[in-house]
Queue: 2 jobs
Job 1
Amino acid sequence: MSSYSNTARVNEARRVAIFGGTHGNEMSGVTLVNLWMKNGIEIQRKGVEVKPFITNPKAVEKCTRYVDTDLNRAFTPENLSAPTGDDLPYEVQRAQEINRMFGPKGSPEAYDVIFDLHNTTSNMGCTLILESSKDYFNLQMMNYIKKAIAPASCLVLLNEHPLLKYSTSRSVAKHPVGLEVGPQPQGVLRSNIFEAMRVILKHALDFIEMFNEGVEFPPCSVEVFRVSERIDYPRDANGNIIAMVHPNLQDCDWEPLNPGDPMFQMFDGKTIHYQGSGTVYPTFINEAAYYEKQQAFVTTRRETLVASSIRKA
Amino acid sequence: MEHIFFPPLSRIAVCGGTHGNEMSGVYLVREWQKQKVDESGALSITTVLSNPPAVNVCRRYTQTDLNRCFTNALLSSPITDTTPYEMRRAQELNAQLGPKGSEKAMDLLIDIHNTTANMGLCLIFYSSDLMMLHIYKYIQSKMPSVPVRAIIMDIPLSEAFSLESVGKHGFAIEVGPQPNGVLRADIFNLVKKSLDLAFEWIQEFNSGCTFKAGEVEAFTFVKSVDYPRDPATGEITAAIHPQLQDADFKLLRRGDPIFLSFSGETVKYDGEDNYPYFVNECAYYESKTAFKLAEKTTMTFPSISVKN
């Protein structure tokens, strides 16, 4: 046993929320949450209140990512503390409402855990998104989920980057968990993607139930992919995209990208190569929603995080 | 069948962004406009971004589907203050590239589309256009590494509602799978290659080659199948079954699974053996289509050559 192994006492997770439709055209979450709002028996667990919730109903109705502004970037301190008013963008009003219902963010009254369900057009498979490398509760939960679904894979993306991290809807909770499953086109519901997300949530809720019952989870190591850099498409002087993700990189999320490897293909067929200093692991490769955010893909570095054992306080 | 003569083709239109979120056509047209591509050999090429407002917001359409606005009836209806944008735009495109059915129309109109369905490369055209069967056969023979299929619409041109019906000859290139709003290099490369091959064929045709009679397999629409829905709310209650997902053009037999309900039940196909296509096409949720069904037929065509 290492010197890490003082057991961390963490409060029971009594209040849990499952968010769907944070982006209105990411159909797995919309469908699952609507299903569970009609009949929540599948998500009931002893000793915990689990609330399914559609975060962006107007975007869901229009089957669009957002109406005025991206809800999953809207939970900034400025937005949350702005005076309420009808002139605020729809999603900022929603962020304030969600912060009232499930927060306030950063306070003791905030929900214990929020699962935020997303899809991506990238070939990321099942991905759990972690916002803090020190959240041992989340690390233990993610370790539990990975082991439970093995040999199927579920990778962990850590976004703790000071410039690239963003204010998500789930960040209102003490333990925010992003679920990102792809590839799935916007507006489309694929059965395999839907069922994969459903299974991950099942294991996540099982973990919470066991934790609340007093189970101690021993120290664990979790491999994570830490967000490193955002890479944009090559653009011309007017900001128009002049190259596409190279066929050799397309769909190769999580596979090593080495200096000199093909990265983009120009419209005339010419190849642009990756010029970084070392091997990186790209992800969010060719996500539809990120063209407007100047992101063709994001690079990550592999790291092993260690979580101490945890038990309920 | 008797040999047919056709006049030469010299004015070609290439259209993209008829649906503003189908990115291959959007980027191809933009690139050709940037490079000022207006000819290929002796062919004059006109590139058109069909629905610019929809392209700007990366949506299929702004008020109504542009690619349903080209029937003769709709093209001649009067424009009022309440006429949706796309209906006005259709009449503008008809004036620019048509008028449909007249001598002034483009010799060939090619409209580029993408689908979220796993359809590979499909050429969509009308049964009345025997020249198209030759172009299809040519493209298919020169692209052996991808599935190239023909979907033939057996409707009179006056009732044809899509943009390509405006040209004297016309076809849509439909390539998938590609999500809306995404530009995949492999799909873009397929579109570009099929256009290059079409131009190659046209140049050979114009130079006097005789193209022999023959036959080719093609698919014709039979019917659409909707998702299972809750009778009270109309909401969808099942997803396309994993065995049907991505299985476009694989024969569907009675008893094969087609839907998997959210509560875990399998719904089986209860019809004649047919070929599913547009399986889980995003845009068709709105038009209550989970997939379409086609019959496979053999189309015979006569030999053809140019007559100046």
Job 2
Amino acid sequence: MYLMQLIYSTTFLLVIHYCSSNEDIYKEELYIRPLASGHTYFNLLFTTVVSSDILKSNIIHHYHLFPKVIADVVRSNGVSEFHVSLTQGLWRYDRWGMPIVGAPPGAEVWAWFNQDEEKDVSSRWTSFAHELGGLLCASLNFVDSNVSSSSPHHSFRPQSIVPKSKTFKLDNSLLRYAVLPREIVCTENLTPWKKLLPCVAGGSNHKGLAGLLDNAPKLHHSAYHSLRMDLRQICANTECTLTQLELSMGLAIVVDTATSKPNYNEWTFRSIFGSNIAQSCPLSSLTNIYVDLQLSSTHTFNISPEPDYTIKQGQTPIIVYDLHNEKRKGTTFLMSCNYNKQQQISSTDNQNNNSLPSIMVHRYATGYGARDGGIKTVIKLNEQDQTEQITLLYFEQIPWYFRVFLHTLKITTLDDNSIEIKPEHISYIPGKDRQRSYQLELVVKTQQSIIISFEFEMAFLKWNEFPPDPNHGFYIPSAVVSTYLPSKSNYILRSLNSFSLNQSLSSSSFDGFVRVYSESLLVNLPTPDFSMPFNVICLGCTAVALAFGGLHNLTTKEFGFGEKRPKIPFRQRLEDLKFRLRASRHALVQRLFKKKQHEHTE
Amino acid sequence: MPLLSTLLSQDIPQNFYKLQLHIYSGLFCIGLLGFLYLSSPIVSRRTYLSENALSPGLVSNDLSISNERIRQIMAQLRAGFKDKNIANVIQSMLIENGIEAYKQNIGINSTDKQEENIYGIVRAPRLASTESIILVAPLYVRIQTNTQQVKANLFGIAHTLATGFTLHRKPYMAKDIILLFPTAQENGTRAWLDAYFNSKPDSIPLDAHAGSIQAGLALEFPHEKFYSIDLRHNGINGQLPNLDLINTVIQLCDKNSIAASLYNIYVDLSANDLGYDYVIKSTRTLLLNVLTLATGISDGVHGQFLHYRIEMITLFGSLEKHHEYQNSPITIRAFDDVIEGFIRSLNNLLERFHQSFFFYLHINRRNFVSIATYMVPLGLIVLPALIRSLVLYMSFFASSTSTPTNTNVTHGRTMKFHVNYSPIFFEILECLALSYVLMWIPLKLSFLGIWLITMFLSPIFLCPLRSNERQFDYFQFILLLTGSAILGCLSLLNYSMAFLVACFLMPCYLIAGCTKFEYWFVKIICRFLFITFLNPLVFLALYHYLTRLLIAGTLVLPDFVQFTNDLETYFASYRLFNAWTVDVICLTIIPLWLVLYRSTFWIRN
């Protein structure tokens, strides 16, 4: 009996042990970079790595650190990997340098789907976007409309790093990409996003770095705010016999930390996040804070507490705090930083040339009026560190109501607009009214900065195709420029191997892959004045009726003058009337009389 | 489709023929008087804010710009103007305060100096730079008394900068603010706008953009102290900014008890009964509105922006005191409240300006007439031309039943005579060609040339029209239709110009029609009238004198030297403004007048 019990309990324990497989890894990181413009860039990164078994549909799962809702959504729609970002504001490349992962203003979603499923990709994409939108409280349900979805050929390759079989051919019909520049991001998106993290308990007593998100005053009082979530497959071991799932969640904010004193910046955890890190998350295997001291050549820094160690990434020193360190156990981690500019740089330039990133994109709408327009995209390369040609992959997705003319596509160098550059490859899918958006992908090899320009014509929308919101124009989503930077830059970028910074900082390999997003544009379509439809309808109908009646009569009928009626004197009319009255009385009498006679005969 | 019904001359009541002249002149006079009647409080409407999102003056003032700060900025600017490196001074001030600033080279001016526009962009934290508001302060502005002279716009630049500095880093800003400092007034502004919208293929692109520009404000303050603000809103070719924008500024000015005038005329609306002063000043404002809009050029840099559908007006710091007991100039605090309130109102705006009115005439700052009302007088003035053409048309046809020998059947109707189109065609072509050639002679000469040639030479050069009476009627009929069609088109594009042209053309038609009478005396009188009172140049001089009278508000003597000077400046500046007034006048109105004038020389066959 006892033996049996012991065996049962042991098996039970074993099962529990198996289910909570210790392969699950959860990492928390906070990357901080003070910027020359007086802002500070905070990037919270949460990476969960789990066994890919949880996506199998025929076994019972135990979700340990992985959010169950995500697994459900991914499994039921046959998604192999996805990316979603919700962003408020615009990342200013020229003033802030490169972000770890870029994002366009508004919402961006893309997903690769598994090939062999019963349902077709489009219906799976629709249901996936709806479910994800519900999960994040974002209006991602608009992505499946024909205005904002496309399947680019080259720009969004799978992020998963699993070995591909030789017969594998990349099929872009399995990819769906959508962007919604109109989406506004706020706390209602942050709360459900936050709840997907393992160390977020009910209530507000979160542990670890997630505790910083409890009631942060500056989270939405920032110049840039971007939520992100990526799911992909990675190799579990070096031979890649086993695959794992990596879920990376990131929150990037850029906060204005300048003070009223000129050239003096100051911030603490409490001023930015409203709280300090009270406890570390026991589930995390890594809790690190990095401070990128890129500005240390021109600014003097005063950071407390002392860092645990310092690493060097190229030229830039990065100080690291390890919160799992023994000496920090049980203590509250608080951090403060102030820095000021050492010497007055008396240049009239806006940016210090050395700090400019290797690639920048600036895009603007040209033309005015309600019929024709155009788009110009300036891709600026930092010529100082440009020694060899680099290959740029330019992607543009434009809603169908901006009818793009491909023959107007022109690529010239920035300095001299007479030198035209021929693109290596053009992939263009023309849009169809109300069915498909325009999609343009270009591969350009260049050493100099270039301008890509093309023109479009604006379509007349039907009155019920205008969005119900106040109409201030229609958005054209950001252009995406993807490239591999040839030389190692000063910026910490996300490496393709890992979303976790710890891994990309320690590994020596530098792939230099960047995806740069341009501004989204707001263009006015020809719009009827909706504020007075009633007046317009009334006036229009009246005018048409009046004009039509008159014109119709004039053109179809022949007018003639009728004979004049002879004038009848008043006395004569009176006589007539008398006569008529008498006649009618006579008739009445006769009828009554007849009736009576009839009765008598009966 | 041809008309099926035959309209015959005997269908017109005989009484009408007798009273024809009375009816035409009566309608014309009623139209003129009706226009003046627009200024009465019965016809005009009170202004209101149609766009609820604007709600001006409701935000609590948040910007505090100290007098010391303004003085400090002004001192820096003054030094910059003295050393002639104002562009660098402004740019470095912007960059010091964390605002991105750029320069735009617009070429070399007459004195071989590089001209540069400076602009800065205050980035809004809440938006991805898709929309923006613009504040413009030209480096130099024309002064009030003499429009030839320019003065540094110290006050305007200082306040634009100070507003930019304080609004930078404000969390509630949802639209970028562009601070633009154009160098050569309209010229610089135009170069900047062309580059921003890339509307000219050869323009060099700007370094930075801030999305679609919604609306803005231009500040022109030649004097450091001012007693009232003059609102200038005339755009190019009769364009006007949205009435809501002007009302916002007026509301804010009233709230801060700053006297806001239109065309330097301030109507005191506080009095209980509207007296003589109100009527005179309102009529003056109305007439000045029409007279200045008719020129097609704007009275500030905002006109260039209206061309690109950016709603904008200019605030001009005027030295005139309008309140009776006002002794001290307007405080910086009050002025900054207006600017801040304006920007905050625009910041709240969810849509482009589309409500309220785009076609209006101001009576005073709180009353206006909308297009529905002011079109009526113009219609009355043009109506005689239409009636007369109908009468002429009806007289061409004979009833189909009677078949005289000399008839001509067209489209099933019987015309009383045979029309020979070639002399009519040549007559019109000659006049068109003449005006077209004259337009390409340097502009200043053209008017003088037209005057001389038409008066003395054209009857000698070109053979006069020879026709019979019917043919002459037909010719008149074509001219009447052309004239009313031109006026109809013009009235929709530039009402004020159409109104003035109608006032000029209608008497011309009347006189030209009178030459049908075969008395040598009548013909001589008609020609004399055409040379004197109905001469375009004389009309222009009268127009100029009337405008001067209205601006001055008192009796002034005509000044021929000033007239020629103003005409010269107008022609010099008009190309710069992108206006089409002179082209339209030279290619449609002058030929029409020429044809009418030449028709007084017609000879009966």
